[in-house]
Amino acid sequence: MNTNAIDENGFAINVQLIASPNFDTRPESEIILIVIHNISLPPNQYGGNGIIELFTNQLKPDEHPYYAEIHSQKVSAHFLIRRDGKLIQFVSCLKRAWHAGVSNWQERERCNDFSVGIELEGSDFEIFESAQYQTLESLITALSSIYPIQAVVGHSDIAPGRKTDPGPYFDWQRIATTN
């Protein structure tokens, strides 16, 4: 899927929007960082509604043992890229999504304040699909055309020791970054 533009309200053009309540106002800060994550719910299973339910506070704790552990977390990302390349947006880029947690980039704390979070449906244990890289590249291009993006990093880069995503199977050579 080609994402050619982000509008003045921080939404990608012609993309499915599923509004997450898990966001707040950004502090006065430019969007300069893109953070890439991976997620699968249940773990290592793809295609279900678990991710959407988590980001919209509708995850049912009795549907999977792992859900019982995480169902009360209030998290989100700006975007999710499904295995088939489909792009879903949860939070306007102009708002602060809750994706990075305790984080630091170039001695700046709280990366949620100045980043856009992109989740790839996947795990640390499998390669990502070509369609995901194509959508990701298009999205990075669209974001970089409207915001002064300085770097594209993994969650593991801003929360080392705490996070491992996007994981060892993410092929950084497949995306053009501004690092």
Keywords:
two-stranded antiparallel ribbon; Lysozyme-like; alpha/beta; 179 residues; globular; 4 helices; 10 strands; 6-stranded mixed β-sheet
Indicate the topology.
Layout: E1 16-17, E2 23-25, E3 33-39, H1 50-55, H2 65-70, E4 79-81, E5 87-89, E6 95-97, E7 104-105, E8 108-109, E9 115-121, H3 130-146, E10 151-154, H4 155-158
Parallel strand pairs: 1-5, 3-9, 3-10, 4-9
Antiparallel strand pairs: 2-6, 4-5, 7-8
H/I helix tally = 4
Distance between the termini: 24 Å
How do the SSEs run, as a string of H and E?
EEEHHEEEEEEHEH
The neighbouring-strand order within the major sheet is 1-5-4-9-3-10
Number of domains: 1
According to CATH, the fold-level topology is Lysozyme-like
The CATH architecture category equals 3-Layer(aba) Sandwich
How would you name the CATH homologous superfamily?
A: Peptidoglycan recognition protein-like
Describe this structure in words.
The protein has 179 residues and is α/β, with parallel strands linked by helices. It has one domain (16-174): Peptidoglycan recognition protein-like (Lysozyme-like), CATH 3.40.80. The chain is 18% helix and 20% strand. It contains 4 helices and 10 strands. Strand 7 (104-105) and strand 8 form a beta hairpin. It is globular and about 40 Å long. The two termini are 24 Å apart. The mean pLDDT is 95.
Give me a quick take on this structure.
This protein has 179 residues and is α/β, with parallel strands linked by helices.
